[in-house]
Amino acid sequence: MTKLFMVSFEGMNYDILLNWIDKSYLKNFQRILREGCLDKIECGRIPYEAAGLTSIFSGLKDSEHGICSYWKAQNNNYVPEIWSSDEIKDYMFWQKKDYEENSFNIVNVFGTHPAYQINGNMISYCMHNSLRYTYPSTLKMDLLKSGYSYIQDTGAFFKNQSKEKFLNKVLEIDSLRYNAGKELVKNNPDISIINFTCIDRLSHFYMNELRENMVPLKDTAIFQAYKKCDEILGDILNCVEKNNADLILFSSVGFGHLKNFVEVNNYLAEKGLLKWYSARVPDWNHTVAFEAPQGCHGININKKSFYTNGIISDSDYTEVLHEVMDQLRIMRNPYNDNPMFSNVVLGKDFYKNDTNVPDIIIEPYDWEYLPYGDSYWADKVMRHYQTGWHRKSTVWGGLGPNISPKEKLTNITDFVPLINRIMKKFK
Fold first, then answer.
1. How far apart are CA 373 and CA 389, in angstroms?
2. How confident is the model at residue 214 (pLDDT cuts 50, 70, 90)?
3. pLDDT tens, 374-385?
4. Phi, psi dihedrals of residue 200, rounded to the nearest 5°
């Protein structure tokens, strides 16, 4: 029986990875480059893990699955709602009929919470406190009894604590994640999928260390994250060899430098399109337009027919929509007076549908200055402290008996066809 390991190291930057491979800092990634394939790949047009991972495991474009962010792009009570597994699971390849005879381990993948029944084991990606993060439900206790504890990413939120404290906790979480995943491999699944997040999480807050040469390279948070993932990869490669398996590694997003997030809500307020109730909360009864949740790069219109305190009637919607778009097109970057956006388009045109997508998509002119997003979650994750953000070009690699060193993928939607070929699912 063919065995496949799929490993996500979220947040990888291809140029950084190749540079450190060339300097022999990452011996296991270096082995992938030498014996298999390691290359760039294009991810989502608005790169975010939620959209990217859904595309990777479904083979669908963002316009087909409609996932823009961890949170729904439009929420009638204005509070960003996290997508549930019930709304996403049917997209995933492991739910398809062709795979009903295959067994799986799935660890820390967006769209799996609450955990649900599969042929195998699941530890969900959970963004809040919950006891419903494993399938079977007894799995968390079974792991604990075997000496394996598990902490979700929410166990290490950045709160402007010391670098050492945040760094160590993030690395600890990925170590615990790997140990739990390794224990599950003893069940001999056909396909093992695991998502590691330390590179992404540390790159958000410490990308500036690489640009500013603030500390020696080996003391930078990002270097330590790449080293941790290289160490994990080495152990996984041993397991891959032992099982004569194939390995696919990837990141659903690339990464780059960030100078500032720009609060578009402040601009909308200046133009009389948004009124503040308090310093961080709009007065919905007097607000025309506002930012969608972070990662969407979107603006929503406060429609009476959808929002609990909406003020724009359906008859006025189109006219107001285009008035807001005209104002966004002339917005200047408050930090350098360059244009803020390269393009302002209708959400339904950008995604080719209008199912829970922002009314307006705002495409950045300069990717080092990005829209802040709705403040409810953007404040919680302290976006104004971040010095790095996602990019459209990311990394993938492969090694194994069914993966050619000359294997070429161009977009993250190409993974499912590759998986089907490896697992001999030709329909």
1. 13
2. confident
3. 999 999 999 999
4. -60, -50
